[in-house]
Structures are given as C-alpha cells and as structure tokens.
Design a protein that fits this description.
1 helix; 5 strands; alpha+beta; 5-stranded antiparallel beta sheet; single chain; 145 residues; 23% strand
C-alpha cells in the first residue's frame, strides 16, 4: 500500500505559477486582436480600391471613342467617381459611398494619353483638403490614334 506522501501532485506554488504564465500569454494575444482586425480591414480596403482602379482602367482601354462606355470618362477631362462597398458607382457623393476615384490627365505628347487614377477612402474625405485613411494610385498610358 502507498503512502499519501508518495502520491504525485502539483503544489499550490506550481499551479499559481502556471496560471500566471497562461494569463500573461492570453493577455498578450488579446492585445494583438485589434491590430489584426485593423490590418485585415486595411488589406480589404486596399484590395477593393485596386480592383476599382483596374475596372476603370479596363473601361478606358476598351474605349474606341472619346468617352468610355461604362464610367463616361472623357479623355482629357478630369472626373471624380464614387463607389460603394459593392463596387457600384455614382457621379456624386452618397450615403453609401466608400471610395472616391479621381481620374486626371497629365499633359502628354501627341498620339499618347496618360491617366492618373487615384482611389481614396473614406469617400467623404476630399484628398485636396484632408488626408484620407488610405489610398491606391495607378498611372496608366493609352495609345490613342
């Protein structure tokens, strides 16, 4: 028969130390959750803005006339478009507008056309007067004969 003193067990000090280490690790992980959520939100916004810019660029590349078919962008004339979270666009700032896309045309040699397409978010923040939360920009060249 075994004596009670021979039985294996944890002391109160060991249990307290283990709970302290576990609590420290959990607090550290919980402190990183807001950072991860912010990074995820920024990555999602950056991806959506890049997709919107790609869509505008594709529309302009598909243009055979002076005005693009989908977004009604006239080459040589600056235009501002507003997009919601689902990628639907309007020409005016609305309650659901999430992205502001500015299309400008820097001067270029004859036969070439350049466009500077910049998406910023949130849409109500005018990049000319305030600093937006995020932005994505693409400089695109078109050969126009």
């Amino acid at each position: 028969m075994r004596k009670l003193s021979d039985a294996a067990a944890f002391s109160l000090v060991e249990v307290t130390l283990a709970i302290g280490i576990a609590a420290f690790c959990l607090i550290t992980v919980c402190a990183l959750v807001p950072v991860a959520v912010l990074a995820n939100r920024n990555a999602t916004s950056q991806t959506a803005a890049t997709n919107i810019i790609a869509s505008v660029t594709a529309d302009m590349r598909a243009t055979t006339a002076s005005t693009s078919p989908q977004y009604n962008i006239t080459f040589g004339t600056p235009k501002t478009l507003f997009f919601d979270g689902a990628g639907q666009f309007t020409t005016s700032l609305g309650a659901n507008s999430r992205y502001r896309v500015s299309v400008t045309f820097p001067s270029s040699p004859s036969g070439l056309s350049y466009a500077d397409i910049k998406a910023t978010w949130p849409a109500p923040a005018d990049p000319a007067t305030t600093t937006p939360s995020g932005s994505a920009e693409m400089f695109t060249a078109f050969k126009r004969n």
